[in-house]
């Protein structure tokens, strides 16, 4: 039904962890699309500088999805010479995919509630849909700008979302995984193992490159 939709999840992925990966796979299966695209950002515009280079973050995302046909990586933001503005990415995608293809931007509830601080965020819904996944510890503040926006644009099911190219907000609850990259970085810098929070191949890469304050 929805082979024609483009579904992506942006993030710093500093580093990518099982909360991202499981979310991506569950959304891909729930929507019934063939693939979900992970788009690592280059210069994080809304947060502190990451603990490793853009190239290293990209390499870890690539390692994490190796062998999983349902997930792929798009390097457009990493390869761009501009800071990663979601607006720029959405406009580029809309131009490539044409006016009618549904474009869905997946994000956690924490990111969704920070949208009002993103560059030109009001334009996002003219270019695509939002799929917002619940994240342990974050609840939509009903009495807020995002609460209002959600009520105005809410879709109740994937079919409703995928019947239009843009403009809807779908909130979805999936297997709750309270993992964050912050927790992974802190675990590593404290000298503890992050195993089972991140894929083994990502942990291997972190060890080989001594990222996040790891010393041998
Ligand atoms: P940090 O702690 O450094 O902010 P993070 O774990 O939040 O890292 P990001 O790269 O900031 O990871 O997040 C990218 C996207 O993935 C965001 O939309 C975020 O809400 C979502 N996300 C991250 N972790 C989870 C999780 N455990 N469950 C659901 N969504 C998640
Ligand atoms: Mg985050």
Q: What's the SSE blueprint?
A:
Layout: E1 6-11, H1 18-31, E2 36-40, H2 54-65, E3 71-73, H3 76-79, H4 86-97, E4 103-108, H5 109-114, H6 124-127, E5 129-133, H7 145-153, H8 158-162, E6 169-172, H9 181-189, H10 200-209
Parallel strand pairs: 1-2, 1-4, 2-3, 4-5, 5-6
Adenosine-5'-triphosphate is lined by residues 11-14, 19-20, 23, 107-108, 110-111, 133, 135, 177, 179-182.
Supply the CATH class: Alpha Beta
The proportion of residues in beta strands is 5-15%
Q: Ligands in the structure?
A: adenosine-5'-triphosphate, magnesium ion
Query: Which spans of ≥5 residues are poorly predicted at pLDDT below 50?
Result: none
What is the helix fraction of residues, given as a range?
25-40%
Give the overall average pLDDT. Answer: 93
CATH superfamily: HUPs
Largest pleated sheet: 6 strands, parallel
Strand order of the largest sheet: 3-2-1-4-5-6
Please trace the helix and strand order, writing H or E for each element. EHEHEHHEHHEHHEHH
Any idea of the CATH topology? Answer: Rossmann fold
Work out the radius of gyration. 17 Å
What is the CATH architecture term? 3-Layer(aba) Sandwich
Q: What is the multimeric organization of the chains shown? A: single chain
Number of domains: 1
Structural class: alpha/beta
